[in-house]
Amino acid sequence: MTADLKPQPAVSGAAEVRLWLRLLACTNEIEGELRRRLRQSFDVTLPRFDFMAQLDRAPDGLTMGQISRSMMVTNGNVTGIAERLAAEGLIERRSSPGDKRTVRVTLTEAGRRAFAEIAAVHHDWVADLFDGLNEQERDQLADLLARLKASVAKHTEDRPA
Amino acid sequence: MTADLKPQPAVSGAAEVRLWLRLLACTNEIEGELRRRLRQSFDVTLPRFDFMAQLDRAPDGLTMGQISRSMMVTNGNVTGIAERLAAEGLIERRSSPGDKRTVRVTLTEAGRRAFAEIAAVHHDWVADLFDGLNEQERDQLADLLARLKASVAKHTEDRPA
DNA sequence: CGAAGATATTTTAAGCTTAAAATATCTGCG
DNA sequence: CGCAGATATTTTAAGCTTAAAATATCTTCG
Questions:
Q1: Which of A1, A8, A20, A28 to mutate: most B Cβ within 10 Å?
Q2: Option in B17, B122, B145 nearest A23 (CB)
Q3: Which DSSP category does A158 fall into?
Q4: Which chain B positions have a beta carbon within 8 Å of A72's beta carbon?
Q5: Whole-number Å distance between alpha carbons of A58 and B22
Q6: What is the C-alpha separation between A143 and A157, in angstroms, rounded?
């Protein structure tokens, strides 16, 4: 529809696809490296670490739904992760007194200790991986990603909430 | 070791972690949206589309190892994807004449047609999702990601090839 | 009160992903 | 030649992830 308003390169979207593939490769590289290190150093998976990170910021605990929303994954997904974390004694699940449908999840004392230990090292790992960018470049990247996220949201905000 | 050469904010790595989480969220958002659209419009998964994309650029086909390397996933992973693509009649696997260990994979005619149809729409989708960034911003993002990838590689290049 | 619809969560089926072990084949060297 | 190590791939076990269906509880409204 905008063909004569906005001249395009020979193949529509080719440059964007290259950029997208680079973004994906970069993210996967970092994610894979962090996953490997978490497994080797702490025998923990990235999703379990992420789950615990949500709880660590919420002293009173969170419901399963809150966790799934903040992790941006499906409800069913967090059920499985919670199952394994509970089996390891790192979290506790209690049915809410007010609303029996909801489950209130908290870190156990062991979970809080384990998370703190891992998080400290995790911070350093991430700082290391990003140390090839100076502060200005990091700010620039953060800004571009915010714009990109907004751009994506324009095309997705009309999904079933 | 560099503590007195390079002053750090109060919590080491906090800014980098925030940037990393933003990068991850942004990538997941785009990846999820593309996955959903591929499934709804073409009943195909992202990994299968990606697998076919590798083959489409290689008229003579590729070995399983070449495919797993270009997709940056494990060997075992591509075995499963190939199994399903072959069941759908989209690829063909032939034992190599020279080296009986290797498998030469090619797109079937149906596979080539299916890929072409999907790829055209996929290009447009990606272009749409990125249309909130102008050309300069896209170039800037590509450049920062290249630097980031290089930075990450510094810390990972010493892994078993 | 009681049913209809909304909300929170779990279950299920299918598929993706990894790491590690197993298989099969090839290559080089004595 | 024959075997030791290298290479290509598959298999296995465990876990992550999604979408859709099922379950359980709550809320609203007549």
A1: A20
A2: B145
A3: T
A4: 25, 28-29
A5: 20
A6: 20
Residue B47 tokens read as 């990994």
Reference B24, options A155, A98, A50; nearest CA is A50
DSSP string, chain B: --TTTS---SSTTHHHHHHHHHHHHHHHHHHHHHHHHHHHHHS--HHHHHHHHHHHT-TT-EEHHHHHHHHTS-HHHHHHHHHHHHHTTSEEEEE-SS-TT-EEEEE-HHHHHHHHHHHHHHHHHHHHHTTTS-HHHHHHHHHHHHHHHHHHHHHHTTS--
The per-residue pLDDT for range B67-107, each reduced to its tens digit, is: 999 999 999 999 999 999 999 999 999 999 889 999 999 99
- Closest to B22 measured CA to CA, from A134, A146, A48, A124: A146
3-state secondary structure of A106: strand
Its pTM stands at 0.89
The dihedral through the CA atoms of A27, B18, A91, A75 has a sign that is negative
**SS3 call for A57:** coil
Q: Which residue of B has its CA nearest to A131?
A: B151
